[in-house]
Specification:
Mean pLDDT: 77
Strand content: 15-25%
Number of strands: 7
Low-confidence stretches: 170-178, 198-223
Radius of gyration: 31 Å
Distance between the termini: 53 Å
Structural class: alpha+beta
Order of helices and strands: EHHEEEEHEEHHH
Helix content: 40-55%
Largest sheet: 4 strands, antiparallel
């Protein structure tokens, strides 16, 4: 059974199945004619070699080099392109790449917290770009480059994340917010110590009111 049908769960449906943009195949398509032309040109120059055995060896070497160049720079990229998949289902985002050693990424829709796209001017002219997906529990977002119609794909991923409850996850307080709360708690403790040491009534505008003002200003700043 072909990918991705072999990995779909019961009741799961494919919304989009993409491979990298066709621009990835431009250079591999130019390699065979360029290699053939260069090999023929060098073989013609080899006719000046006086020895027949040497000319034959040079021509065979040129043919071998041309074949290796086509295999390495044209056939292998084509196979890699053919074996790279990005699939959006109604539950998750699947990525699979690799020819012999394959690597797979499975991003559940419920873990997706943000989706955006990035395109250069050249990519925009070709209709391609990079899909950036932020998920829970990962410091760096996933990036999938060289995708065609990337904005439409991002809309699909956002829809899946919204349906599965991913985009609605609350963002936890960061280190800066925690440090702010610790500082405010320390100020409160100091002010309470000052009140305990001083039996005198606290006049208006005293430590308690000043602490409340600081906490209010900090709250407004944090918001």
């Amino acid at each position: 059974m072909a990918y991705p049908d072999a990995v779909l769960r019961r009741g799961e449906h494919v919304l989009a199945h993409r491979r990298p943009h066709w621009r990835m195949l431009v250079v591999p398509a130019l390699v065979p004619p360029a290699a053939a032309f260069l090999a023929a040109f060098l073989a013609a120059l080899a006719t000046t070699v006086p020895s027949d055995a040497t000319r034959t060896a040079l021509r065979l070497a040129l043919v071998l080099l041309a074949v290796l160049a086509v295999a390495w720079l044209a056939v292998l990229p084509l196979v890699r392109w053919r074996c790279t998949h990005l699939v959006v289902t109604d539950r998750r985002l699947l990525v699979r790449e690799g020819v012999l050693a394959r690597e797979s990424v499975d991003v559940a829709g419920a873990t997706i917290t943000g989706v955006r796209t990035r395109c250069t001017g050249f990519e925009r002219a070709l209709g391609s770009g990079t899909l950036v997906v932020a998920t829970v529990g990962t410091e760096e977002p996933w990036e999938f480059s060289g995708l065609g119609r990337v904005e439409r794909l991002a809309t699909m991923v956002e829809g899946v994340a919204a349906d599965r409850g991913g985009l609605g996850r609350a963002v936890t307080a960061g280190p800066a917010d925690e440090d702010l709360e610790d500082d405010l708690d320390e100020d409160l403790a100091d002010d309470e110590d000052d009140l305990d040491d001083d039996p005198e009534p606290v006049p208006a505008g005293g430590p308690v009111r000043r602490w409340r003002s600081r906490r209010a200003r900090a709250a407004r700043t944090s918001r």
